[in-house]
Specification:
It contains 15 helices and 11 strands. It has 2 domains: 235 residues, Aldolase class I (TIM Barrel); 94 residues, no CATH class. A hairpin with a 7-residue loop joins strand 10 and strand 11. Helix 3 runs parallel beside helix 6 and helix 10 crosses helix 15. The protein is of the alpha/beta class. An 8-stranded parallel sheet has the order 1-9-8-6-5-4-3-2. It has a 3-stranded antiparallel sheet with strand order 7-11-10, with no helix packed on it. 39% of the residues lie in helices and 13% in strands.
Amino acid sequence: MGLSTRVTELLRIEHPIIQAGMAGGATTPRLVATVSETGGLGTLGAAYMSPDAIRDAVAEVRSLTDRPFAVNLFVPEAFDPSLYDPREVNAPLARYREELGIEAPEDVGNFVQPFEDQLAVVLEERVPVFSFTFGAPEEAQVSALKEAGTVLVGTATTVREGSVLEERGVEAVVGQGSEAGGHRGTFIGDFESALVGTMALVPQLADSLSVPVVAAGGIMDGRGLAAALVLGAEGVQMGTAFLPCPESGIHPKYKEAVLAVESEETALTRAFSGKPARGIRNRFLSEMDGEEVPEYPVQNAYTRDIRAAAAKEDRIELLSLWAGQAARLGRAMPAAEVVEGTVREAAQRLSALNPPQS
């Protein structure tokens, strides 16, 4: 039943399936380990985690599986919080804090976790695979990771970005189509120009790059895997498909929302974090989309307390419900069944396209 490709060989996995590194608590060590143990590549979404928390999570994953896994981080982007007046940033957020009974924080704390310190843990722990988005690590960082025996996987939303990543030395490129849930990985030009669909992006990347391409965006089952392979990808990255799993760490009502969403009910928004991301339309997204908000990670830091308080009160209308356009195909089943079912169905679909000759 295995579908062998350059991606499976590169990552030393059985199935060409990568569980996306969804930051913010979705990718529990249990989810990561289960996907890896089932033959895919589990990914710890560690972008918002402190270095110590990453180290602890890596240790927990390793206590559950001896298979390869990945850690995913956000490549840092330049930002200047002093450009924004806290009173102006907080003004449109005041009504939500009032509803939740919380005060605006005097200090939002760290805007981002220190990337260099996070990456140091990846190096020290000799994590098998390092995946990243929002750009490309520096050449010295790439060299250090390769010296540690870590495989590098980068995210591109255009062919131009894919070429930059290949030149930087990544060993596989994830082509993130516009259907994908969560933050856009665009790092060259404006994100509107980089909203290329998965079906259009993947074959262009496959024709342009020498490294293997992984398709991401709108892939929820074996049909998506089979289609991606036919288009020239050598693996897929699936995020939304794993959100309803019992191993996922998202809020239970978030899981319900993913299973109930219709195909037209997701949207790209900067409201929660300041960076364009695709999620399920809810009250916060709808009301805040008309507001001017600061760039990531400033807005992300200013809304952190609202999201935390809303989660405690089961107020999902105020949470960032990241999900892709194909969320309606989601199923509440164990992560192992997602992996196994996807591979089984893909093999059947591909066999039907190429029936044995009599």
